[in-house]
Structure formats: C-alpha cells, structure tokens
Amino acid sequence: MHAPAQARSVRLTVAAALLGLITVSCGSGSGSGSGSGSGGGSTTPKAPVSRTTSEHGYEAAYDAGWREGKRLFKDGGKGAAVREVVWGGCVRRSLTAQPHNVVEKDRGAWVLGCKQAVGSGTDRHPPTRWVTRRESDPDLLARFRSWALENGVKQPARRVSQVVLVHLGDRDYDVQLATAYTDTSAKAEVRQLADAFATWWDGDDGDEARAWNLIVSARDGKRLITRNL
Fold first, then answer.
1. Which residue among 139, 175, 180, 189 has its CA within the 20 to 30 Å range from the CA of 68?
2. How far apart are CA 194 and CA 65, in angstroms?
3. CA atoms within 13 A on the CB side of 187
4. pTM for this prediction
C-alpha cells in the first residue's frame, strides 16, 4: 500500500522541479528583453524601419488613381474610357482628386493609374519612378506678355513671374502661372489673368502633346484658380 504513495510523491517532486525550471527560464527571457534598452545585449530582432512616405509618393498616387479609374470603369464602361483617356477626364479630375495630400505627391502617377484602370480595368503597370516633371518656359512667358501688352491686359501679365509646364506623363501636361498674387489678392484680377491667358492660348500644343489645365498659383505656390485649356 505504501509503494503507490511513494511513486506519487516522486512524480510530484519531479513535476515541481520542472515547473520551477520553466518559471526561471521565462523570467530570464523577459528580463533580458527589458534590459536591452540599457545595454543588456538582447538578441530579439527589431522590426524593420519602414521607408519614408516620400520614397513611395508616386506609388501611393498611382494606387489612388487606379482606384478612381476602376470606379469610373465600373460606372461607365467603354464610354468612360473614351471620356477619361481621350478627352482628358483623368487629367482634369486630378486637380480635385482625393486624398489631396496623396495625389499632389505625384499627380502624373495618379493620372497614369486612372487611365490604366478606366481603359481596361485589368492592365496594371505602376511606375517605377516619379512621373510628374516640371519645366520652366521663359519663351512662353515672353510671348504672353507681348500679347498682353497689345491687348490691354499688361498689368495682370506683369504679375506672372514664371510659366511652368507641368508634365503629367508623355503627352499630357498643365500650364502653371507662378504669380506675385496672394490668397488675399483681388479675385477679379486673378480671374482676368486666367481668362486672358486662356484666350491667348492657341490650342496648338505641338509635339503630339496636349495641355489640359491652366493653374494660377500664388507666390507661396497655393493654387488660386484653374481654367480649361
């Protein structure tokens, strides 16, 4: 009758010893982890540091454009493809597309995503570099000022400090007028400038490229007004 009791006693003793080892082991592991901040030499791997948002700005903008293009294709089918790709719908939409802070990182990438998605709904070819490219055009500014002088809009034209071609891909681009205006300037004068430039623009963009939008911006770069070209 004493043998089974002794056996139980031995088993309980072994179990208690194992439990003690496990408890010590767990305590040692958590201790080394918490001591790593003070030079404890922890071997726990750290989570990889994510790249900055700016590195992937064109990817985020493309994805946003792709989602919008998919929505347009779903709602309008092939008719939407003609409207958005051939008639410049995606380019014009890019000025007000949301989320604004994502789109403006690379508006050309947004346009590319929108076009690809609405064109077929399936062929996805994201960019591997920045798409939007800005190019100053002093000759264009000089020609506009000369025309403005002859057509009674000299004063608004003098407020333009730079004409910038905002390339949104191989063929699409916008024209931006960088001005000395601020967001508190007289809106009537800003509109007069935009109307004058749109009137002067002859529509013959050349080099198989097409300008879609006119953007008049303040001295701090803020967009004041837009016009179709």
1. 175
2. 27
3. 4
4. 0.73
